[in-house]
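Q: Can someone sanity-check these two? First one:
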Amino acid sequence: MRIGELSSRTATPARLLRYYEEQELLSPERAHNGYRDYPEAAVDRVEQIRGLIEAGIPTRIIKQLLPCLNTGSPSIRITTLDPEIVASLTEQREQLERRISCLSRNKDAITRYLADSAEHA
């Protein structure tokens, strides 16, 4: 698929998809006319990348993680992870756990509010 279709299907601007390619997070094929040609799996890959970025993980670490996130692979193969990256991932995981806890508390509060509102309506 072309970049415009991938952009539309993932709600990701084409400019951002080009940035992902520059960062070696996406690797489209090139057609004879030079146009980018993305496989169907690129839709899931873009969603993975966006989710990791939204979680606060830097692209340099995402680049290291992506080979481990191949859903079609039966096993995770890690080549060499830099100790600095391991430390950064550990910190990122802890931040994610704090965010998840906060989001969960907020969701519970909203649920209680809506339940109380329904009772008083």
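And here is the second, same format, sequence then tokens:
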Amino acid sequence: MGRNAKPTAGTGPGVRPGRHGVVLRGRLNLTVDGTAVMDLDGTQILRDLAAPLPEGVAGTWVEPFLEREKVALHPFLL
């Protein structure tokens, strides 16, 4: 946390434009094997961490910042 994401006081999922990219807001969680996952209104987004999450961060709302050219939507079928 901290390189491209920050904790937020806001709650609830969201997507909005930022200064140089896109800002997502979701709830950060850890799986049983320690993988970071951000829940964006029911959609699970795997997060690559540069370092382990600090104590007490899991379950909080975070806002990662993404560069516009690195954002893509991919349809899928279950």
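A (reply): Looked at the second one. The chain has a mean pLDDT of 82. Residues 15 and 66 are 11 Å apart (CA to CA).
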